[in-house]
Amino acid sequence: MKTVSILIVDDEINLTRSLAFALRQAGMDCLETHSGQTGCALAVEKRPDIILLDIRMPGMTGLEVLQWLRQEVPDIPVVMMSAHDDTQDAVTAMKTGAEDYIAKPFDVDELILLIREIDAKRRVQSEVRYLRDRQIANDDFIGNSAAIRLLKSELAAIAESKAKTMLLLGETGVGKGVVARNIHVKSLGADRPFVEVNCATLSENQIEAELFGAEKGALPGLVATRKGLIEIADGGTLFLDEVAELPLNVQASLLNFLETRSFRRLGMPRDLFSDACVIATTNRDLNKEVEAGHFRHDLFFRLNVVPVRLPALKDREGDVGLLLQHFAMRFAEQAGVKPISISKPVSSYLRSYPWPGNVRELKNLIERLTILHAGQTITIEQLPPEIRDAELNEPLSIEDSMQAVERQLVLDALHKSGGKKGRTADQLGISRHALKRKMQRLGIA
């Protein structure tokens, strides 16, 4: 088991040294500092498991440090310490996000017990997050359609290749984030961080510091060095959702990182390095974005080395029923209620529904029905109006049906050949050029 690491931030030098000695005797790693600003910098740089923070310090007070820590490293538990039995300080600290509060003078053995309890809770939470990520990573892989089998084959090949840059394409709601987590949990860096950032939610002023970090003083109000997400994701995965929203100047910095694996925090004179795998996603047509001058062509080519197009739910024939059952069981288990049942008319109706919101829409529907109708057999009348009154997919004509059969045969052959077009053409008894034309006509990427 990994030794728990402690950062002590207290201006009383003698107390800090004696406390650190006692914690080391108890088998813990300790780092000490006597100022709030240095404590902030060490918290970001060293990322200790737990921080012991004094409330009353000259300069930057403990409560000010706590507020900063909750913004920059919200996952690190903080225990506040004070020689003043001030109830108001304790209340303020707990409201600000402190894990606990201990008054000086304290019994060191009691503090050690408290630290071990917090560490055990932290480890359990970490394990829960890991298991949750594994569950989420498998959600959209429920199904046995040719489209999903081909996707699984592509992802297996990507895992074997140990690729460091990937581009996930597809409509909103198809599960790009789920696939990114699936790639992460099956990678060599599964025990390292999975860091997710939605590029569309950050302003142009925020995004560069968020991705690459910033040195103390490089930005107004920055009192300590801030690690960027690329640095935090070292050895793990950086998931850039909606990458087309990045400003052009940040696109240039991202391209440099992808090509050299080096980057600089804002205000830093030297390069740093990160071995993070970068998975980018978008639901936009990047070719059109490049033509419009909104996306760098060189960055597009660099990201497009390993493109993966996720199928829309309407193209996953036969998977709707399996997904309905999967989410019905999952949400019932989470809520501690009996699962809903899907009547035959509803099942038939939902198989014909076009699912414009894809798997996300189906998932939200089942969660809603579980909350409102736990244990019941769902009828058409219980479906929400936007789904119940939707225009369903029309029955296929004979020509369309034959085309659907032909498309399925090509997809099956691609799956059997591992996506290799030469082998697929041989299986189908046609030339590679004829296969290419057929795939274009049938809309197979």
Give me the Rg, rounded.
27 Å
Work out the helicity level: 40-55%
Number of DSSP helical runs: 19
Distance between the termini: 47 Å
Give the percentage of residues in beta strands: 5-15%
Number of β-strand runs: 16
Mean pLDDT: 86
| Cross-sheet strand order for the largest sheet | 2-1-3-4-5
Broad shape: globular
Structural class based on helices, strands and sheet pairing: alpha/beta
User: Spans of 5+ residues with little confidence (pLDDT < 50)?
Assistant: none
Q: What composes the largest sheet? A: 5 strands, parallel
In short:
With 445 residues, the protein is α/β, with parallel strands linked by helices.
What does this structure look like?
This protein is an alpha/beta fold. 51% of the residues lie in helices and 13% in strands. The protein has 19 helices and 16 strands. The chain has helices at residues 13-25, 36-46, 62-72, 87-96, 108-139, 146-161, 176-185, 204-212, 229-232, 248-260, 286-291, 297-303, 319-335, 344-352, 358-373, 385-388, 398-416, 421-428, 432-442, and strands spanning 5-9, 29-33, 50-54, 78-82, 100-103, 165-169, 194-198, 213-214, 226-227, 237-241, 262-263, 272-273, 277-282, 307-309, 341-342, 377-378. Strands 2-1-3-4-5 form a 5-stranded parallel beta sheet, with helices on both faces. Strands 7-10-13-6-14 form a 5-stranded parallel beta sheet. Strands 8-9 form a two-stranded antiparallel ribbon. Strand 1 (5-9), helix 1 and strand 2 (29-33) form a beta-alpha-beta unit. Helix 3 (62-72) runs parallel beside helix 4 and helix 5 (108-139) packs across helix 7. The longest helix is centred in the first third of the chain and has 32 residues, at 108-139. The mean pLDDT is 86.
